[in-house]
Amino acid sequence: MPIPDRALSDALRLAEALFARLREASLDPPGVTRASYGEGEAAAHAIMADAARELGLEVASDAIGTLRMVLPGTDRDLPAIAIGSHLDSVPHGGNYDGAAGVVLGLATAAALIAAGRRPRRDLLVLGIRAEEMCWFPAHYLGSRALFGLLPRQAPDTLRRVDTGRTLAQHMAEQGLDPAPIREGRPLLDAGRLACFLEPHIEQGPVLVEEALPIGIVTGIRGSLRYPQASAHGQHAHAGAVPRAFRRDAAMAGVALIAALDARWAMLEAGGADLVCTTGILATDPAHHTSTKVPGLLRFSLDIRSIDADLLGEIDHWLKTEALRIGAARGVDFDFGPPTHAAPARMDAGLRALLMREAVTAGVPAKEMASGAGHDCATFAGAGVPSAMLFLRNRNGSHNPDEALDMPDVAAGLAVLARAVAALLDQA
């Protein structure tokens, strides 16, 4: 039985109000700041918890701060349908990255309640902690901790970049307990979840450029990251040292990056899924000047693909190419500690369901890969059937200009709520 338009309209008004409350609580001009295990994130969790209680949902937070909001089903022994995302943001970021998934989860619960639907199984709406890697140097920190997948030393070795204090210290400030992480103890049983759905703003321009309100994600690219790579040569006088005797770290680093770009172009032309980024590229400010050959270059590499084998091939190629360029230029490369995130394929059955409901609701949609990482990848990796629904977003993400139009929220909600209603009633 479809959800009435009136129920969806009421749920949309709730979503709009929640977005406004989140913005007001975490405003940090020119955008919003909800630091992982910080005041802004905690305020967002409190807002969502209050809204869930007003709807009559069961509300609780676990030891590491995951917010759990449950619309009970008639048969509570059945695995739950979960919807959710994270509530932290980058510094001075937009109001919708992550938060849209939790807001749409609550709005879906509100639509079901307004329609008088008592689901057969539980609907679990999750507010996940600490997804944004800019605060603590660990990908999917909150969702990996939820499944007991973080290194056990993480609470005491991970430090927040703006404060220098450990994850354990920040958790303690909020009355939370890092013991489950130290013990490698999961706080969520993957076997108790029938599936996980993560609504999220698209973080690129595809839906805007193709004039589509929603996208259905096929998979989440994995990443190979070297955030602290460097090239080491020798500082020298810019005019006095001939080319043959130079150990120019900048030239060597640029040569490696140019070679990577050429390889990327070749692989992409052959149909490979690949993106490569050098976000940091700097000589040593304590030594650099226009009249000195640089002996040190610091740089970062961020390489992503839906193909795990390709990421492995690129990693091997990088090391081999660095040795070749280094030998030719008298420079040593140090890639530093890597961070890896495995690619995640989205569940084919859930993707098909979302597409069918989009057609039924008259909402234009397309299937597309996600270039950015999401907590959904952790759920998929834990064996939970998972899917993502992208909402059109003008101006990209991780910036104050994220723009989510309410008609697009309405389109996404119509598809999501219908799909969730169908899943909740399954045996």
What does this structure look like?
Belongs to the peptidase M20 family. Homodimer. This is Hydantoinase/carbamoylase family amidase. Keywords: Hydrolase, Manganese, Metal-binding. It is an enzyme of class 3 (hydrolase). There is one protein chain. By secondary structure, the chain is of the alpha+beta class. The chain has two domains: 5-221 and 343-424, Zn peptidases (Aminopeptidase), CATH 3.40.630.10; 223-341, Alpha-Beta Plaits, CATH 3.30.70.360. The protein is 38% helix and 22% strand. It has 13 helices and 19 strands. It has helices spanning 5-26, 39-55, 99-114, 141-146, 154-157, 167-173, 179-183, 206-209, 249-269, 308-329, 348-361, 376-381, 406-424, and strands at 27-28, 31-32, 58-61, 67-71, 80-86, 123-128, 193-201, 214-220, 222-232, 236-237, 275-277, 281-283, 292-293, 296-305, 332-334, 339-341, 344-345, 365-370, 386-391. Strands 3, 4, 5, 6, 7, 8, 17, 18 and 19 form a nine-stranded mixed β-sheet that branches. Strands 9, 11, 12, 14, 15 and 16 form a six-stranded antiparallel β-sheet that branches. It has a two-stranded antiparallel ribbon with strand order 1-2. Helix 1 (5-26) packs antiparallel against helix 3, helix 2 (39-55) packs parallel to helix 3 and helix 9 packs antiparallel against helix 10 (308-329). The longest helix has 22 residues, at 5-26. It is elongated.
